[in-house]
Inverse folding.
């Protein structure tokens, strides 16, 4: 089901890692991208929890990165190639904002991953989200910009309250 969100997840991850690049070489870039992808995946699964939700966003489109580009100062980037930035149309602002929240708030990241896994594997954290919820020192160094709360604040505050509401809804759903 969530594999259908792969274009949205890939584009949103690319936007994050372009706006907040890795600190270091090739290994740091990979570690940074892995953390961003894990955060975006969790956020996308929370935002679009059912197959119908996923199908609707794929039909209607996620909205693109125009507002995010303005916030991050990337809106003046032009290219001679009209297709160079076509991937930006697949960026989902809410998913990106939620991912930024997860990257900068470890407690919130744990809550989000727990909310996802409660329905399928209670009391377990899937290893696919390890770098998001328990980053080691190498992960932290590689993603220093990506995890910096002050740098991500303009993006993370956009939809922070919606994320908290969704997590509360998820918690109530599992309690019932």
């Amino acid at each position: 089901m969530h594999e259908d969100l792969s274009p949205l997840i890939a584009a949103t991850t690319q936007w994050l890692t372009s706006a907040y690049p890795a600190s270091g070489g090739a290994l740091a870039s990979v570690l940074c991208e892995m953390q961003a992808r894990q955060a975006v995946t969790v956020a996308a699964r929370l935002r679009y929890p059912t197959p119908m939700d996923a199908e609707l966003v794929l039909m209607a489109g996620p909205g693109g990165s125009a507002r995010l580009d303005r916030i991050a100062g990337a809106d003046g980037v032009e290219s001679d190639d009209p297709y160079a930035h076509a991937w930006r149309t697949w960026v989902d602002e809410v998913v990106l904002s939620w991912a930024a929240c997860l990257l900068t708030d470890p407690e919130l990241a744990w809550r989000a991953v727990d909310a996802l896994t409660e329905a399928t594997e209670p009391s377990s954290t899937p290893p696919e989200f390890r770098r998001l919820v328990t980053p080691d020192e190498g992960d932290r160094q590689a993603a220093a910009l990506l995890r910096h709360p002050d740098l991500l604040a303009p993006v993370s505050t956009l939809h922070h309250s919606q994320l908290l509401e969704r997590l509360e809804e998820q918690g109530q759903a599992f309690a019932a």
